[in-house]
Amino acid sequence: xxxxxxxxxxxxxxxxxxxxxxxxxxxxxxxxxxxxxxxxxxxxxxxxxxxxxxxxxxxxxxxxxxxxxxxxxxxxxxxxxxxxxxxxxxxxxxxxxxxxxxxxxxxxxxxxxxxxxxxxxxxxxxxxxxxxxxxxxxxxxxxxxxxxxxxxxxxxxxxxxxxxxxxxxxxxxxxxxxxxxxxxxxxxxxxxxxxxxxxxxxxxxxxxxxxxxxxxxxxxxxxxxxxxxxxxxxxxxxxxxxxxx
Length: 245
What we know:
Helix content is 40%, strand content 18%. It is an alpha+beta fold. Strands 2-1-3-8-5 form a five-stranded mixed beta sheet, with helices on both faces. A three-stranded antiparallel beta sheet has the order 6-7-9, with no helix packed on it. Helix 2 packs across helix 9 (217-243) and helix 3 packs across helix 6. The radius of gyration is 18 Å and the shape is globular.
């Protein structure tokens, strides 16, 4: 392979089955992953957790962050810092990713893609989108609606710097935040066909489930209003970008 970017995999040390799964997939597909120790949100305090705006979070979402959500946020944030500090584009995977047979083809052209796009989601969404470019055997699409998920993405230093610039306050989950193109200026684009899928055989470790909270009617109305506001802003930004020469 030529012009291949480093592949970082977010992984908790105790999640050995997930690590082994990625290692086996990587060996089969012909590349060497670099494992990045995840922040465990269940372990208690972390300096980055001070960025949570708890009052705003409760007002707009009706519940606090779950420990796993904070761990995911901090883990991705630290990799963004690494990307900027080392001035090195990278591919970031979560350890439950399932890599498709076309992943090596993507890696081979990954550096070439960064000449056109500073950020690219690697899973394919069935949401409506607009094709922007073709690189090798892949099409790059801009989504009409935010596709969510951080299973796998390509990240260049310019996009990482933009993500960091508006991440002083944590209110949304990190995947939601990364979709706020109108806020940080990083366009939400994705790969078709995708080269990464989310694995379903593993129980979540870094992202733990918790019983759903009972929300008051006021909280439900605020949450739904906020959801619709975000959807409107996303659509407006999408149209602004496709109409701008």
